[in-house]
User: What shape does this take?
Amino acid sequence: MRNMLARYWVLFSFLWTLPGLAQEYKSIEKALQEPEKVIHLNLSRERLTTLPVEIIQFQKLETLDLSRNKMDSLPTFITQLTNLRQLDLSRNHFTTIPEVLKKMDTLTHLKMPRNPVRQIPTYIEEFRTLQYLDLWDTDLEFIDPAIAQLKSLRKLDVRATYLKSKELEWLEKARPDMEIESTYGCNCD
Assistant: This one.
């Protein structure tokens, strides 16, 4: 009986760490009570203007939701989150994609909808592991050609932006393997 319980405990412990099954912490205070267990942290709607330095204690953190805050930049210590895969910066005050994120070797998903982002900068090509970039409903007017060099990028969401057909035609030709979601083709030019 003990062996069976031990096996179930091992199985349960493994399943608990899988995405979607791991606990999502919704406050930094609660997460700090067991920092070694924090994989998903949701700090949305906390009126944050900067990232709390305590976050570097969460070394297993894979998903961080900072949406609906008042942030316009990220501190360099975010690069200490070496397991971070998904970052949600939706509905903040970012005017550009934070350059500090290019140093994050595990970041695969970056969501930045509803920020006043005007362009995709040249340094985007340095985001070597980025697979999904969401810039829906931003002030986007320009995409630097360097994005075509970002071979890891599989999906780009630029719906409801100021991009015109010309800005997306070249990208579709340069990267036919990348899915581009846009309102291009709506005869809005």
User: Anything to note?
Assistant: The first strand starts at residue 24 and ends at 25. Strands lie at 24-25, 40-42, 63-65, 86-88, 109-111, 119-120, 132-134, 142-143, 155-157, 179-181. Residues 10-17 have pLDDT under 50 and may be disordered.
